[in-house]
Every structure is written in C-alpha cells, then in structure tokens.
Design brief:
Order of helices and strands: HEHEHHHEHEHHEHHHHHEHHEEH
Keywords: Heme, Iron, Metal-binding
CATH class of the largest domain: Alpha Beta
InterPro entries: AAA_16 (IPR041664), Cyt_c-like_dom (IPR009056), P-loop_NTPase (IPR027417)
Structural class: alpha/beta
Number of helices: 16
CATH superfamily of the largest domain: P-loop containing nucleotide triphosphate hydrolases
CATH topology of the largest domain: Rossmann fold
Region (Disordered): 1-21
Radius of gyration: 24 Å
Protein name: AAA family ATPase
Number of domains: 3
Domain Cytochrome c: 166-317
Number of strands: 8
Length: 404
C-alpha cells in the first residue's frame, strides 16, 4: 500500500481522519452552546478518561464547534507547577479577540482586567520585567481581579468577560486540558467562579478534560461541584465505531479492510482510539494490497507493538525510578493474580488494592507511600477511590509484564 496515501494519524491530541463514536457528545454540546448564548442555564462540561481515548481530540472538536457558532474561545493545558493566572489570561485574551465586539472602550476595559488578573501573580511590587501580560497593550485596570485572592479575582474576571460576550449575543468557552493538574486553590476558585457565573446567567462555560479521578478532585474542592458540571466519561470505541474509524479513511483512498481484518484489529486495539490509529498506520504500510486481511494485521502487529512500546508506553515507563517501576510491575502482577485465582474484584478500569500491591512486594503499605505518591504526581497511576489504584494508560499492565 502506498505509504504517502496512508490516512491514519497516531499522535498526541492529533485529530484522526474520522472522529468516530463521538457524535452524541458533539450533538449535546451544540445544544449547550445555543442554550448558553440565549441566557438559559446550562452546566459546564468535564470529559474524563484514560490516556489514549481521545479526550484532547474531542476537547478540540468541541472548541471548533464553539468557534463555528461565533463564540470567543481559549484553551490551555494545566500543569502542576503553574498557577491558573497566566495561562487563563492568555486563553481569555484570545477569546475576547475572537468575540469581535464592535466597541473599543468595553473591550479595552476587559483586556485591562485580564492584564490585571495576570500581573497579580507577580505581586504588587514586582519589577517591570516581571509584570507579564499576554500581549495586551492597554493598561491594567486597578481594583478589579487583582485582590490576590484567586477566587474573588476569577469571579470578577469571568463576570466582566461574560458581560462583554452578552453584549454581542455570543458566549465564551474556556477549554482546559489535563484539568486534574490544577492546584487545589485554583480548582476551588474555578468551581466558585463557574457557580457564580451560572447563577448570573452569563454566557461563559468551562470545558475541562482530565483523567478518571478528575471528578473526585473537583468534589474534594467544592461539594457542589457534582451539580456544577456535566460529567462525560470518554471510553474506548464500540466495535461499530472502531470499524468506522478504520473503514471511512481507507475508503477515501480507495481501500478497505475485510471483515476478518476488522475483527483482528478490534481484538488488538481494544477499541482505544490511539491504538486504532497506531495499528492502522502500520498495517496500511505493510499490507501489499487492498482489501487488508487478517493475515496483514498479524504480520503488522509486532511492528505496531514495538512502536507503541517505545513511543506510548516506554516514554512513560522511563519517567519512573527503579522503586516506582517495581511498584508498577507489582500492580500488573496483582491484576493477573486476581484474574487467575478469581479472588478479589476486577472493575472495568483494572483497579487493584494498595494493600495487595504491598503484599506482592513483601513490604508494609506505609513504606510504599513515597513511590505511590510519586507515580500519582507523574500521572502514571490514579486513585478512583480510597485504597484503590489503576493505570492511567490502557494496556500498560500488559506492557509491563512483557518487560519481564
């Protein structure tokens, strides 16, 4: 098969040629956009799921939908070592520019408030070079969004931005990737601001994406967050959607997969969107002709697995220290043991008990806390509930067992 015409696109956050299996989320979001723009109450949105299920791709698709409706949008990726002020200010600066408000004075006022919000991070006595601003030329508005209390400041900031959007009958969407990495104070402030904006009926929504424990992070910050956001779990694709993700791009290039090939592809990928693209790319390059068969998939599978082992699994495994790797391998061994013996409970995300991991390693649970906490911070594992942990990456346990 001609590699130049290969339609598959494995990449972090890279939109696949066919965004299969997400029609329901896209349709629901169109309704949200229309309702918010008309001043009707609607909750902000949180997408959760493992790595490789396409959360970032869907987040970008939702943002594109907002842009098509004439909304102002901005996006940033949360980082554990960075506060909310600067990246949010950049995102809102872009959103205000996209709104296209016809009057200069109200726009300049809001831009000045954004600058004030951003510069407050540096402190009131900061030197000029430390007074960062996201390319905003107007002076900061003193006394607005600059109290130093991020919760107060964020409410004032989004109130002003929302008022600007309401003037032109549009809305503002703030899109946050890796939302679980926001600091506790920033999470609390964001929840409070969303609550206030929702009560005010202003056309501003937050769309966040993060790992499966993100709802727990939000709930720990504000008890009402369970009612504040609409939570949507983004999971692997059904067989029908996975087939469409492979067949539709192939058809554009006058090629196809036969039924046995589609069956083998689903078995190999588990329906995870990133794996579908990774396997699809390799199978296309190695298949001699169309239609692609199960034999072609069998030949290509080892090469696809090698590429995933280096780029998807290996890059994460290398971030772990030797002690952390032992912990990860013990998690994988506990899951296998539970499956083989039938003892314990295996849920749909493969959670294992921290106490069982300690037994597997022959150590006291307390002595393993540093390794577990470090892995949580690195985003390699997460805790869905107290005493349980799981991998953030699908098929990671299988990869670890293959390492010996």
């Amino acid at each position: 098969m001609d590699p130049i015409r290969n339609p598959y696109a494995p990449g972090a956050g890279q939109r696949p040629p066919e965004l299969a299996g997400r029609d329901e989320q896209l349709r629901a979001f169109d309704v949200v956009l229309e309702r918010v723009a008309k001043g009707r109450p609607e909750r902000s949105l949180v997408l959760t799921g493992l790595r490789g299920v396409g959360k970032t791709v869907l987040l970008n698709a939702l943002r594109s939908a907002a842009v098509r409706k004439g909304w102002g949008t901005g996006k940033f990726e949360a980082r554990p070592d960075q506060s909310l002020r600067r990246p949010l200010s950049s995102a809102l600066h872009q959103a205000v520019r996209e709104l296209g408000h016809p009057e200069e004075d109200p726009v300049d006022h809001v831009l000045g408030v954004i600058r004030s919000f951003a510069q407050r991070e540096a402190g009131p006595n900061a030197k000029l070079r430390e007074q960062w601003s996201p390319g905003i030329e107007v002076p900061a508005v003193r006394g607005r969004a600059d109290s130093g209390d991020v919760e107060i400041d964020l409410v004032e900031l989004l109130t002003d931005v929302g008022g600007l959007a309401a003037d032109v009958g549009k809305g503002v969407g703030i899109f946050i990737d890796e939302m679980q990495d926001l600091g506790p104070d920033d999470v609390s402030a964001l929840c409070a601001a969303c609550h206030e904006i929702s009560q005010s009926g202003l056309p501003v929504i937050v769309v966040g994406a993060g790992l499966p424990h993100l709802p727990a992070v939000l709930s720990a910050s504000k008890s009402y967050s369970e009612r504040l956001f609409s939570y949507q779990r983004i999971d692997r694709l059904t067989r029908e959607a996975a087939d469409r993700a492979l067949q539709a791009p192939a058809a554009e290039e006058d090629a196809e997969f036969d039924e046995t090939a589609l069956k083998e592809m689903y078995a190999a990928t588990g329906g995870y969107p990133y794996f579908i693209q990774a396997y699809g790319k390799v199978v296309w390059d190695l298949a001699p002709r169309t239609p692609i068969t199960a034999a072609d998939v069998e030949v290509a599978a080892p090469e696809a697995e090698r590429e995933l082992a280096v780029g998807f699994f290996g890059s994460r495994y290398e971030r772990a220290t030797p002690a952390e790797r032992d912990y990860l391998k013990a998690m994988a061994d506990v899951a296998v043991q539970m499956t083989e013996t039938g003892q314990g409970r295996i849920d749909d995300i493969g959670s294992v008990a921290t106490a069982d991991v300690a037994v597997m390693l022959g150590k006291k649970p307390q002595s393993l806390s540093p390794a577990r906490d470090a892995l949580l911070k690195k985003g390699l594992i997460y805790s869905s509930e107290r005493g349980l942990i799981a991998f953030t990456v699908p098929h990671f346990g299988r990869y670890l067992r293959q390492q010996g």
